[in-house]
Structure prediction request, 315 residues.
Amino acid sequence: MRADDVAAASDLANELTAALSRVVRGKPQAVRLALVALLSGGHLLVEDVPGVGKTLLGKALARAVGGSFRRIQATPDLLPGELTGVSVFSKRSEDWEFRPGPLFANVVLVDEINRATPRTQSALLEAMEEQQVTVDGVTHPLPDPFFVVATQNPFEHVGTFPLVEGQRDRFAVVIEMGLPARDTERELLLGRGGAGSLEDMAVVTGPEGLRAAVAAVRRVHCAPAVADYVVDISSTIRVHPEVRLGASPRASLSLLNAARAQAVLGGRSFVSPDDVKLVATASMAHRLILSGGADLHAGSALVRSVLERVPVPRG
Prediction:
């Protein structure tokens, strides 16, 4: 790939980082991983308690990348057609016309995704994997780029429906926002610290610029030894005695693409083992089903232990 493609994507990543950091304060790790998901062409799951900025991060991402944006509040009575759209009979044309749902946007924020029923959650599967929806036997392409940010509270169980394995596997990265540092929280309370507002946030790029950056990330060079390293990580996870459902080949490809995005964030046109290690936990932990069930914290600890055991390629 051309060096100027990487440079342009890296410059865009830096601008997005600066813009997001002015609004989502004190969360550099969350901002970095959110951009890894965006630039890798995947989707983002934000899992944490209420009130720590999950929705704010999703809205800030949408604002920064421009294009169209839709927000969906998931509820138990939300129907699949309310996401994908429906066919309506038109008296004017005397034919059925398709009316697109909120999924037809460049950035879609699904708040509290685990409040939607499994039937409604399944409406996202085709959209997130194939960038299209099928309604009444007719397939409709979604906008390009198409980026889903979903939020959920892992500790709330009343009126919620856990994401099925296939749905969790559609997300490239999972992040936890965490509580702010004491000084940051104090500044937020007092309205100090130069925090930017979402309304004042500048649009950094548009759909065409983001499309070019994602294409550049996908062309970042990966040496065979680094690809073997990704496979070794996935294989070791699969045979771990605590794992009931391990990392799929799709998970391995997603991890590599996330590492490519991390490389671009670092201004490089090649993937290093360190890039893989930096994104492996966020890329893999949510996909694992352990002996005790799906547990993000336990899955993260397991991935970190695997990273310590798998030999890192040198040279």
Notes: The first strand starts at residue 44 and ends at 47. The mean pLDDT is 90. The chain has two domains: 3-219, 221-315.
